[in-house]
C-alpha cells in the first residue's frame, strides 16, 4: 500500500479540496501549484472521495511532490457535523470504498431534497446546474450555494449558508451518516491514520476522548486563522491524549481572500510523526 516515504525537509499541506468535491482546482492543477510553491508533500482530502489518488499519483511523482492518500469523511454525532481526515490508507480497501460510495449516494439524494426545498421557497434552480459544478466527484452544499449565487438569489456564499443551507435553515436537510467513532475505525481498518479536522469549527471537544478510544491518531491544530489561545488549548488536549499535531490550509481553490495551497505552514516532520503513530497502532494489535 502507498505510504509517505523519506524524510525530506520542507513544508507540507495535509488538507485541501479539488473539483472532485467542493474545490475549484483540478487535481493536476493542485499538484502544479504545490510544486511551484515548493511543497514537499500534500494530501488532497476531498469530501467522501478518494479518486484524487489515482488521478494524481503519477503526476505528483513527476512533479517531485509526495502525494499522500487522503480523504475527509463526514460523520454525525448528537446533531453535530464532525469531519474526520484519513491518511495513508489503502485506496483499494473494499470496506472504505463501499462506505464512500454509500455516502456519495446519500449526498446526491440530500442535494436533490435541498433543491426541492429551495424551489418551494421561491428560489428555483435546476439540479443539472448544481451537478455541472461537481465534475464527476461528490455533490455538496457548496455546489448548491454556487447555483444560488449565480442565479442572484444570494450575494455571497456566506449568505447562502447563513440564510438557507446551514443547520436549522429553511432549506437544510439532515442526512444519515457514520458516527465519528465508526469513521475512525473505518480509516484504521483500511490501514490509515485518522485525524479530527478543524476542531475549533466543530466545537465538540467533549467527543475527543471517545475518538481517541476508537483509535484517533491526530488533531488538526495548524489551521487557517485559528487564534493562538485556541491553538494552545488544542495542543494541551493533544498532549493529554498523545495525538499528533497536524494541519493544512483547507484550501478550496485560489480565490481572493481564501486560504491558498500551502498558506498554512506545516513541517514535513508532521507527516513522519503521523505515520509513526499509525505504525505503532498496528504493531500493538
Structure, described:
- With 285 residues, this protein is of the alpha/beta class.
- It has 2 domains: 11-99 and 180-284, TIM Barrel (Alpha-Beta Barrel), CATH 3.20.20.140; 105-165, DNA polymerase, domain 1.
- It is 44% helix and 13% strand.
- The protein has 11 helices and 9 strands.
- It has a 5-stranded mixed β-sheet with strand order 4-5-6-7-8. It has a 4-stranded mixed β-sheet with strand order 3-2-1-9.
- The radius of gyration is 18 Å and the shape is globular.
- Mean pLDDT is 92; it is low at 1-7.
Layout of helices and strands, plus pairs?
Layout: E1 11-13, H1 27-36, E2 41-42, H2 51-63, E3 66-67, E4 70-77, E5 80-87, H3 94-120, H4 127-132, H5 141-150, H6 157-165, H7 180-189, E6 193-196, H8 199-202, H9 208-214, E7 218-222, H10 228-241, E8 244-247, E9 266-267, H11 269-284
Parallel strand pairs: 1-2, 2-3, 6-7, 7-8
Antiparallel strand pairs: 1-9, 4-5, 5-6
Helix pairs in contact: 1-2, 5-6, 7-9
Amino acid at each position: 500500500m502507498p505510504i509517505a516515504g523519506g524524510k525530506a525537509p520542507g513544508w507540507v499541506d495535509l488538507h485541501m479540496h479539488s473539483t472532485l468535491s467542493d474545490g475549484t482546482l483540478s487535481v493536476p492543477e493542485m499538484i502544479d501549484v504545490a510544486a511551484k510553491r515548493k511543497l514537499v508533500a500534500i494530501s488532497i482530502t476531498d469530501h467522501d472521495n478518494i479518486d484524487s489518488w489515482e488521478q494524481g499519483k503519477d503526476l505528483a511523482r513527476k512533479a517531485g511532490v509526495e502525494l499522500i492518500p487522503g480523504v475527509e469523511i463526514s460523520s454525525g454525532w448528537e446533531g453535530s457535523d464532525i469531519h474526520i481526515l484519513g491518511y495513508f490508507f489503502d485506496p483499494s480497501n473494499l470496506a472504505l470504498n463501499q462506505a464512500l460510495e454509500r455516502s456519495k449516494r446519500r449526498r446526491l439524494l440530500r442535494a436533490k431534497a435541498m433543491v426541492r426545498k429551495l424551489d418551494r421557497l421561491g428560489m428555483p434552480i435546476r439540479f443539472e446546474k448544481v451537478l455541472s459544478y461537481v465534475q464527476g466527484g461528490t455533490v455538496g452544499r457548496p455546489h448548491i450555494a454556487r447555483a444560488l449565487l449565480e442565479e442572484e438569489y444570494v450575494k455571497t456564499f456566506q449568505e447562502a449558508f447563513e440564510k438557507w443551507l446551514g443547520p436549522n435553515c429553511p432549506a437544510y436537510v439532515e442526512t444519515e451518516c457514520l458516527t465519528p467513532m465508526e469513521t475512525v475505525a473505518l480509516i484504521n481498518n483500511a490501514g490509515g491514520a485518522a485525524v479530527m479536522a478543524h476542531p475549533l469549527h466543530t466545537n465538540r471537544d467533549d467527543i475527543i476522548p471517545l475518538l481517541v478510544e476508537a483509535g484517533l491518531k491526530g488533531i488538526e491544530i495548524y489551521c487557517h486563522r485559528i487564534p493562538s489561545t485556541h491553538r494552545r488549548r488544542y495542543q494541551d488536549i493533544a498532549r493529554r491524549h498523545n495525538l499528533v499535531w497536524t494541519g493544512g490550509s483547507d484550501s478550496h481553490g485560489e480565490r481572493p481572500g481564501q486560504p491558498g495551497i500551502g498558506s498554512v505552514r506545516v513541517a514535513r516532520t508532521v507527516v513522519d510523526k503521523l505515520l509513526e503513530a499509525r505504525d505503532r497502532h498496528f504493531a500493538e494489535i
